[in-house]
Write a structure and sequence with these properties.
single chain; 306 residues; mainly alpha; two-stranded parallel sheet; 14 helices; 55% helix
């Protein structure tokens, strides 16, 4: 686990070179085909050496939920364990890790009418106004969700308006009794790369985003833009980096504004990831990416019983 640009993939590949591990991606953007550069997807050479499961399993026009991830991840984990190898999950989508660990609470289904109501408010007054509304009905979720995180804001408010209960209350209540949340039959050990000081990560984020642009990020998003069946409201296009380039291609912002917003949005994502990690129980911090972090991880995983 760890914030974006922390070096998770590099560490995972090094571990795969030394231990009998199979890698499973935990990334809500890398599940989509055609979204390679902006999602930080490992390149072909790395994937040939260290294949990652749950990459390129959806078209960007399709939704992929946390429930989908849990089901897919459990299937892959059990396959790896049956082969007497170690499943090593690597990524930064903290909600996916949480759902894998805790299961799924019973949540109300999406309501098009409520969603439209929320989106209309956002269009008139901006997403901070939606955040203010959420804070009045679900302070706990509002404290956890950034005012500029439309997808999570919309879902948290939608859950309350549809059910009369907050997400916190629903998670604290009874879990779903269907097969989507079977109990785990294995132990999860959480390791995290947590770069400090924070400014070092911010600098790395800026360098990486500009490198993505040089590698063809705009052209990658342009290919999606030209398809005609995708829109800015889809979860895939809402991904950090893709949203900002989409806004540039649609004429909402200029190139320099896109670069600035892309870097800021990535830093905000990292901040949210740090928040998740600070409250994560039984977390082993590996510090920043270094030989020392590799040594720590090797010792922990080498002792894993399979």
């Amino acid at each position: 686990m760890g914030p974006t640009a922390a070096g998770k993939t590099e560490l995972a590949v090094e571990l795969a070179r030394r231990l009998p591990v199979d890698l499973i991606s935990v990334d809500s953007a890398q599940v989509y085909r055609g979204m390679d550069i902006g999602s930080g997807k490992p390149d072909r050479t790395i994937l040939e050496e260290a294949p990652h499961r749950l990459i390129d399993i959806r078209d960007p026009a399709e939704a992929y939920s946390a429930a989908d991830f849990r089901s897919d991840a459990l299937e892959q984990i059990n396959q790896i364990l049956d082969a007497r190898r170690i499943p090593l999950l690597v990524g930064g989508t903290m909600l996916y890790f949480k759902v894998l660990r805790d299961g799924l609470a019973a949540m109300p289904t999406a309501s098009p009418e409520i969603r439209t109501r929320i989106e209309q408010l956002a269009a008139r007054q901006g997403w901070p106004a939606v955040h203010d509304w959420l804070a009045t009905v679900d302070p706990a979720s509002a404290a956890r969700i950034h005012p500029n995180d439309p997808q999570r804001l919309q879902r948290a408010l939608e859950v309350y308006l549809a059910s009369g209960q907050t997400m916190t209350e629903l998670h604290a209540g009874s879990r779903s009794n269907d097969d989507s949340s079977p109990p785990l039959t294995f132990h999860l050990q959480f390791l995290a790369l947590v770069p400090e000081p924070r400014q070092a990560l911010h600098d790395r984020i800026a360098v990486r985003f500009r490198a993505m642009l040089q590698q063809g990020l705009v052209e990658e998003v342009e290919a999606l833009f030209r398809r005609g069946d995708l829109s800015s409201g889809l979860p895939a296009i809402k991904s950090v980096g893709y949203r900002q380039v989409w806004q540039y291609l649609s004429g909402q912002i200029d190139y320099d504004g896109m670069v600035e917003r892309g870097i800021i949005a990535t830093r905000q994502l990292a901040k949210r990831q740090y928040t998740w990690l600070r409250s994560w129980p039984e977390l082993t911090s590996l510090g920043c990416l270094s030989d020392n972090s590799l040594t720590k991880a090797l010792k922990l995983l080498d002792a894993t019983s399979i």
